[in-house]
Amino acid sequence: MPDLDGRVAVVTGGSRGIGRAIVHRLRAEGARVASLDVTPPDATESFDAADLHLDADVTDERAVAEAVERATTELEAAPTILVNNAGVNAYFDAAEMTSAQWDDFFALDLKACWITARALLPAMRAARQGAVVNVASIHATLTQPGRFPYAAAKAGILGLTRSLALDEGPNGIRANAVCPGLVDTQLSREGFARDGHGVTVESLASEHPVGRVGTPLDIAELVVFLASDARAGFITGAAIPIDGGVGVRLS
């Protein structure tokens, strides 16, 4: 029997890239999956799409609450797995970033993780079962110049994860974070092309001890492991790097 058979999961940002791979792997393990994403599912992706796509802005509290209610109704069970994957890369000069830009960025990359967790926690508490997996970044603990305020938002996710793990553990709910390094996604490639410095995904492969950059499926496998009570039932409050060993060089 698939490991997550009968469970319902919510994945934010599940239309493409890492999120789409997470959806694919959760479904392969038997879960029914709702994706909350303002971007339509990418028809060119090789991974399975979600059972239910909900056009929901995860920074909008009402939209998230309505999406969770719809997912519960249409997938015929309350979600007990949450993967907070939605986010953007945003790098600013600390002296030039505006308060409005700060608020917009942190609303998606940090606050939305709390908004979605808050929407799902009542049902998880009632079931006395739940797994929250937050997608952070290696930049949460090890960073480089020019990553302001991305590193700050991702570090905040780790604090949020630890607090959820402590407060919700007695309710049967686990919370963990994954911290990817460079992953070969369309978003990463677009970012390198926009920078115009000649850096490519391929050119950075040799910087990794394993000799390659990550794939969306690499991240998805770890997320699914952490979502599983059978495999990871004794893991909570963890922040697990998945970076091909490059963090060893950054430290």
Offer a few descriptive terms.
Rossmann fold, 7 strands, alpha/beta
Structure description:
By secondary structure, this protein is α/β, with parallel strands linked by helices. Helices cover 42% and strands 14% of the residues. Helix 2 packs parallel to helix 3 and helix 3 packs parallel to helix 4. The chain has one domain: Rossmann fold (3-Layer(aba) Sandwich), CATH 3.40.50.720. It is globular, with a radius of gyration of 17 Å. The mean pLDDT is 94. The longest helix has 29 residues. Strands 3-2-1-4-5-6-7 form a 7-stranded parallel β-sheet, with helices on both faces. Strand 1, helix 1 and strand 2 form a beta-alpha-beta unit.
CATH architecture level-2 label: 3-Layer(aba) Sandwich
For the sheet with most strands, the description reads: 7 strands, parallel
CATH structural fold name = Rossmann fold
User: CATH class, anyone?
Assistant: Alpha Beta
Could you give me the name of the CATH homologous superfamily?
NAD(P)-binding Rossmann-like Domain
Strand content: 5-15%
Return the domain count. 1
List segments where confidence is low: pLDDT < 50 over at least 5 consecutive residues. none
Helical percentage: 40-55%
